[in-house]
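Need Integrase catalytic domain-containing protein's 3D structure for a figure. Predict it.
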Amino acid sequence: MAPFMKLGTDVTEFKVASSKAYLAPVYDMASKEIVAWDTSAGPDLGQQRRLLARLADRLPRDARPVLHSDMGWQYQHRWWRGELERLGIRRSMSRKGNCLDNAATEQVFGHLKDEFYRGHSFDLYEQFEAELNAYIVHWNTQRRQERLGGHTPAEYRDMFLTVQAKGLS
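Structure prediction for Integrase catalytic domain-containing protein:
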């Protein structure tokens, strides 16, 4: 499977100081890269707007991915559906009571919470957001993955897209 073909998204919650923070990522199931993300103090439509704007900036021009999600309210929203259509992204939503379609994204949340969050306390939302952003950059550019032949997600993506570009020229 090529990068930017099969993506997943969801929202997860973190306790930060006396409030909460919400992470909404888009995860590439081929490269294992978190290709776009947004952190917010609330899981609102503004977070989803920022997320899809960041995803649009990252998508290769000819990409026509499928984006898997659960049945969360944001993924059923008229704006979300229209924006995916505008970007040329097909949406795929898990059936009620079936989380298997989005299991890869849920697995990323497990890794993030095990490796980044557990055992750490954050006094300020801004501290959490800065450290989470740094961790996601680490995930994409430093964290080698056995399933990618020992490459980082960014290395795998770049290698695949380079080979693909050479094949098209």
